[in-house]
Amino acid sequence: xxxxxxxxxxxxxxxxxxxxxxxxxxxxxxxxxxxxxxxxxxxxxxxxxxxxxxxxxxxxxxxxxxxxxxxxxxxxxxxxxxxxxxxxxxxxxxxxxxxxxxxxxxxxxxxxxxxxxxxxxxxxxxxxxxxxxxxxxxxxxxxxxxxxxxxxxxxxxxxxxxxxxxxxxxxxxxxxxxxxxxxxxxxxxxxxxxxxxxxxxxxxxxxxxxxxxxxxxxxxxxxxxxxxxxxxxxxxxxxxxxxxxxxxxxxxxxxxxxxxxxxxxxxxxxxxxxxxxxxxxxxxxxxxxxxxxxxxxxxxxxxxxxxxxxxxxxxxxxx
Length: 319
Prior knowledge:
Elements: H1 10-31, H2 37-40, E1 42-49, H3 55-66, E2 70-76, E3 83-90, H4 97-110, E4 117-124, H5 126-154, H6 160-185, H7 191-221, H8 227-263, H9 266-314
Antiparallel strand pairs: 1-3, 1-4, 2-3
């Protein structure tokens, strides 16, 4: 029986990844990259209102009135039953009391039946936003570095450094998918993006470790088989586990996204949507990218070592 070979179809997988990257880059040029208030600083305004509104409607109106990027979220006070909208206004400046009063008047002119009433306002200083951004990037980079060290040590019998580098390429691919999803969907890059990134790093590396563990075991059980045969066998053995795990995660997060969309919970949407695509990417890269990349690099290393050994034997014996 002839089985599907992941290694023989590696060029197809590489092409698929290249197409995804190109689509994402085009999305960046078209939509641009928008940082949320947690990273840029700005103002947070909360209002009570009457009737039915969505966070997107109010945010769009706020952006047009103030000329600033705004995101909105609808919440419900379980005690009083009041409906509230939370507006996040990005920018390196807040709003004075007069500006807030003028904005409230114009907002009520846009939605006269809503009867907006100011409930609370606060200012996020740009200094704290920049510090949060720097520490978020540091957290992701540190996680990737520790993963490389772990893979290097754990899989040293099958070329641990190469396994670690292949895993990092797969993780970087997953993080780009999360980033491009936010850009294309118009989700500002904020704390939800950091949470999704760290979640995907942990989820994806777990699937990749399972595959490399199977490769290590199968190389011991089948020492005469070629690298690509061992890798394909290991990926087939791990594939159903990856698919089942990814399916459970994807369905759960997609359901959360659907419910959050119905309730206009922007903060939940900002987590659930990129998490859905990131989990799918994690399943794909662990099986279709990390394994074939390891085989390619391992074969190149073995070839270089063989050529070096042959050259050494060919050297004339020294007198």
